[in-house]
Amino acid sequence: LALIAADIVRIKVPTAPRTTFNIGRMDGGTSINTIAQQATLELDMRSEDPTALQYLIANVNQLVERYQAARWKKWGVHVTVETIGDRPAGEIAPDHPLVKAASAALADAGLTTAPDLRISSTDANIPLSQGIPAVCVGIAEGGNAHRLEEWMSPARLGQGMQHLLLLTWWAAAWLAGEVS
What we know:
Layout: H1 2-8, E1 19-28, E2 39-47, H2 50-66, H3 70-73, H4 97-108, H5 125-129, E3 141-143, E4 151-153, H6 157-175
Antiparallel strand pairs: 1-2, 3-4
């Protein structure tokens, strides 16, 4: 498993479109001096671009296939791949009415007039990958995302909730055809 992980971290990914991967967990064995009967590696792969993501997935699968060869099986090594989550790439144009509404709601809630618009891997990726407009908004300030030290300050939570409600009301009216 360590050899697979070492090979994975050598995979070159583009910086544009932003493409990343993370070996989030490696686990196995029952004690420090026992050969592990089973081991797992959890790999998270993400990209702003569907083609770049598929290229990364193909590279990882090709690498894993090498460890499914007969020379490894004779040692009792059996490698399987299981998808435990799927976060496809997707994006929305900055001039889309939903993005404009989210920006306007930020200003109306007194949070900012210059929102930080960026492509990221969020729950909005699923609808975006299917051509359904979506945005992901935060309702508080925080930092150190995806780390043990991740934090959130409740100081502006009220304004964040106001932003979310304004955006929700606008989206409902937009879906009903009442605004453009």
